[in-house]
Specification:
The structure is a single chain. It is built from 10 helices and no strands. The chain has helices spanning about 1-15, 15-20, 35-60, 65-100, 110-115, 115-135, 140-160, 165, 170-190, 195-214. It is mainly alpha-helical and about 210 residues long. It has one domain.
Length: about 210
């Protein structure tokens, strides 16, 4: 799952941020905020979280559980807080860009709230799943599911940029690709879907509904 989610991040953001940064292409007409310091910070923190997930997975797979737990307790929580702070900052920058382009004024806050609802919900859901994962850190089956679903909540931002690959239903298809293996794994190994998987799937589902309603 860690490798799959990382691949989706690069496929999704490679079509937008990658085109700007690596290829130097002008995509200003696509409604995307131009790449600047805040965008680069957001990208660095996001990629840092994916690298952290991969590293934690490797540590457990190679039997270095104590290192995994120590890194997660301190580095993981610090990085998670950074994701929340930078995520809130980038959402503010998006609103600021909309005002600068004349789409709405600061006084029309309901418009901005509606337009950024999925971003705020994603941050709240990520915080909730991160907290549940930390609470379940001594219960590996629940802990790893919460952490994977916390990451899925973030990676949905990448699937929304994959219309070039998955078509107009890229979010629905992308979420299905990310969530269905977890449900299938539960059913195959335990003949039931674990509570952590149900909670994670529920939050991702609510996010998808908000995305299409707004």
């Amino acid at each position: 799952m860690a490798v799959l989610l990382t691949a989706i991040v690069f496929l999704g953001f490679g079509s937008t941020y990658g085109r700007q940064l690596v290829l130097g292409q002008d995509i200003s007409g696509s409604g995307i905020v131009e790449a600047d310091g805040v965008i680069h910070l957001h990208a660095a923190v996001f990629v840092g979280w994916m690298a952290f997930l991969l590293a934690q997975t490797v540590l457990v797979a190679t039997g270095r559980t104590r290192v995994h737990m120590a890194l997660g307790t301190y580095g993981g929580m610090a990085l998670g807080i950074a994701v929340l702070v930078v995520g809130g900052l980038i959402t503010y920058v998006q609103i600021q860009a909309a005002v600068a382009k004349g789409f709405a004024t600061w006084a029309e806050w309901p418009i901005h709230l509606m337009a950024t609802m999925i971003s705020w919900f994603s941050l709240l859901a990520f915080a909730a799943l991160l907290g549940l994962g930390y609470r379940a850190r001594r219960r590996p089956p629940a802990h790893k599911r919460y952490m994977v679903f916390a990451t899925i909540i973030l990676v949905v931002a990448a699937t929304s940029r994959m219309e070039y690959l998955l078509g107009p239903w890229s979010n629905t298809i992308g979420i299905g690709i990310m969530v269905s293996p977890l449900i299938a794994y539960d059913l195959y190994t335990e003949r039931r879907v674990r509570p952590a998987t149900l909670i994670g799937t529920g939050l991702v589902g609510v996010g998808l509904v908000i995305m299409y309603l707004t």
